């Protein structure tokens, strides 16, 4: 596989976030040649149409747009808050879907998440799939990485230790690499 840049949008600002730990696991399990970097969503202002309609987006939003454009794909990692996507991730997706050439439109993506709840991030990912469809983002369909009871799936150092979760995450990243390669062949 040629070199592939993947931008991770981690939908939790919590310092000890399971989704931040999931990002680190993704970096560890990524196929050879895939490089994952995370964008700090804490930098983004809340979405405001007045700022959107201004001559230029706020600088952190411009930085997000550049980072998405430079990436071959995005990895969306979200906890589940109130049966949905985190507000932090939704805010980033709203900003990245704006402009004359929205950087997320058509961008290959994969979604995963970890939560301390019993159903993991199943409902949040259902909403993420709807959002990605609205943005015309091709999304890796399976496997679904919906890590439930996250407290038991990561060790004290923050490493993902659950073998099934590791297997599914690795397969998801391989699927993302395949999706990027397929789309690049279609563009030729």
From TrEMBL:
Database matches in Pfam families: FMN_red
Organism in which the protein naturally occurs: Calidithermus terrae
Taxonomic lineage from the root: Bacteria, Thermotogati, Deinococcota, Deinococci, Thermales
EC number(s) given by UniProt: 1.-.-.-
Sequence ranges assigned to domain NADPH-dependent FMN reductase-like in this UniProt record: 4-151
PANTHER family hit by this protein: CHROMATE REDUCTASE (PTHR30543), NAD(P)H-DEPENDENT FMN REDUCTASE LOT6 (PTHR30543:SF21)
Name of the top EC class for this enzyme: oxidoreductase
The protein's name: NAD(P)H-dependent FMN reductase
Keyword match Oxidoreductase: yes
UniProt key word Phosphoprotein: no
SUPFAM superfamilies documented for this protein: Flavoproteins (SSF52218)
GO molecular function, one term: FMN binding
Keywords: Oxidoreductase
Superkingdom of source: Bacteria
GO-annotated cellular components: cytosol
